[in-house]
Amino acid sequence: MSKPYAIRTALEEILDGLVEGDPFPPERELAQRFGVARETLRQAVHELLVEGRIERRGRGTVVAKPKLVQPLSLKSYTEGALRMGRKPGRLLVTWEDVEATPELTAALDVPDGDPVMHLERVLLADGQRIGLESTYLPRHRFGDFTETFDPTTSLYAAIRATGVRFGSAVERVETVLAAPREAALLESTTAMPMLRLHRRSLDVDDRPIEVVRSLYRGDRVAFEALLNDRD
User: Fold this and answer.
1) CB–CB of 198/172 below 8 Å?
2) Hey, what CATH class is 68-224 in?
3) How far is Cα 62 from Cα 22, in angstroms, rounded to an integer?
4) Strand ranges, E, within 6-154
5) Under DSSP, is residue 138 helix (H, G, I), strand (E, B) or coil?
6) Where in the numbering of this chain does the HTH gntR-type domain appear (predicted)?
7) CATH 3.40.1410.10 residue spans of the chain
8) What is the pLDDT of residues 101-143, one digit of tens each?
9) What three-state secondary structure class fits 176?
């Protein structure tokens, strides 16, 4: 058994005896216990941090909460969080009208250069920053939202309340590193792997509803999809 694998196995055994919020032993103590160099131990600890098994808190390290598992479906982030017993929340970053780029013109079926609503929010779960969501909406369909929508609440619930019914969406998921601004908003670092989602949603009449670009902390969020082949 290789030394890195043996160290990782030993750290897994330590985690098995701990629960969420328990302090995780410091690197110096662990290196002395297992008789390995700090560098060897640090790599194994870093892997646990990236996987979201442990997290830095203040000057120490503790056992992390389980990842928030979100469905890849036409459901809102709020529904996914509540399903796991987590409290959803949002912090408004930007809410403005922007001029439609050629990409948005095609995706939202609006005239070139028309104003498009841009809503950027930090997503929270139990007060933890887990994602950064940037949504573009056609102003001619949802212009009233500037007066009626509370950006700390569910956008999908507000859209459905207008009578719009979601019909379909195409979503792409990629692994990326955050830019400095994004990392700061998510209270993370540019070295932490992120999951980037790009979604275009249509209503039941195939009219564009939104374009969404979301960035999620890979150590705090996972995604799942229900697959079947019944044909």
Assistant:
1) yes
2) alpha beta
3) 5
4) 54-57, 60-63, 68-71, 88-99, 115-125, 128-138
5) strand
6) 1-66
7) 68-224
8) 999 999 999 998 889 999 999 999 999 999 999 999 999 999 8
9) strand
